[in-house]
Write a structure and sequence with these properties.
Layout: H1 3-16, H2 21-41, H3 53-60, H4 63-66, H5 76-95, H6 122-134, H7 138-153, H8 157-162, E1 168-169, E2 174-178, E3 184-188, H9 191-201, H10 220-233, H11 241-256, H12 259-266, H13 271-274, H14 282-289
Antiparallel strand pairs: 1-2, 2-3
């Protein structure tokens, strides 16, 4: 079976499992890279039956797998994502009966330290909110409501753009959101955020909560562009919609020291995802040593 045909079967299974479009896209890119490498070294075509653990080792050490565009080495965390995709793809083929053995069984992720989440500092957060409040016009009002909600609730950008007016229960401070993996979930918001949203919504009773000028829901790319524009006005060099979620998680942990509370706010299914916010500052270490 050609790698591309096997990949099509794998992607169908991922969709059936409810995996997110981001995850599916990442598998498509990574296994597509393997297919291109295999065609280069095997002119007859890239067949999954022809790949053994030594072939995968050769691929993972090839420039195609280890280098970025321009020749610079990929980050260790990026290389680990590729290894995970390879393992997931071949585990599926073996479990589904397409392969007698799993050639990825010897592939291991490199040992790396977990990078700290990319967040806004308290000063950057304050500056961003200030420029949002100073904005004028409908787009600015929408952006202020949207980015304030994301900063204060920690919901993902995909959840924010999916929100409809009817998904909000502002009296209770509850949002019905589309969570990671396509599942439905609830998110809680503070009273002042609910009041801000009520003012923003006005007399609307249905439709996208955050809409463009044509009335349709914003895309995640458009939201990212809008955030970069506001961040530039605030003198913030680099940020992304996901950094707003990380900023919320870091703020709550710094304020409470309660990792379980952070997990509940961010709706993490695995506590390991929450542990990236646990950072011990130098002063606490010195106090403990002294």
């Amino acid at each position: 079976m050609q790698i591309e045909a096997a990949l099509a079967k794998f992607l169908t299974q991922l969709q059936a499992d409810g995996r997110s479009p981001h995850t599916i896209g990442q598998y498509r890119r990574h296994i597509g890279l393997l297919a291109r490498w295999s065609r280069d070294v095997r002119p007859r075509g890239a067949r999954v039956e022809d790949l053994d653990h030594e072939s995968l080792a050769q691929f993972l050490t090839s420039p195609m797998a280890t280098s970025r565009v321009g020749g610079k080495a990929k980050l260790a965390t990026t290389a680990n994502c590729l290894r995970s995709s390879i393992r997931g793809f071949f585990r599926y083929l073996h479990a589904a009966g397409h392969l007698r053995e799993d050639p990825s069984r010897l592939v291991r992720r490199a040992l790396t330290s977990t990078p700290p989440p990319k967040t806004l500092s308290p000063d950057e957060e304050r500056r961003l909110l200030n420029v949002l409040r100073a904005g004028t016009g409908q787009d600015a009002e929408r952006d202020q409501a949207m980015f304030t909600l994301m900063l204060r609730s920690g919901i993902r950008v995909g959840s924010a753009v999916d929100l409809k007016v009817e998904d909000l229960d502002l009296e209770r401070g509850v949002l019905q959101i589309l969570a990671k993996g396509g599942r439905r979930d609830q998110a809680l918001i503070a009273r002042d955020v609910a009041e801000h949203l009520a003012s923003f919504i006005g007399d609307r009773t249905t439709g996208p909560l955050f809409a463009g000028r044509d009335g349709s829901a914003l895309t995640t790319r458009h939201v990212a562009r809008r955030l970069r524009a506001w961040a530039k006005k605030a003198g913030i060099k680099r940020t992304s919609p996901h950094s707003l979620r990380h900023t919320c998680g870091q703020r709550i942990y710094s304020k409470t020291g309660d990792v379980l509370l952070v997990r509940e706010v961010l709706r993490h299914r695995n506590i390991a995802s929450t542990m990236v916010y646990v950072r011990v500052d130098e002063e606490r270490v010195r106090l403990a040593l002294g």
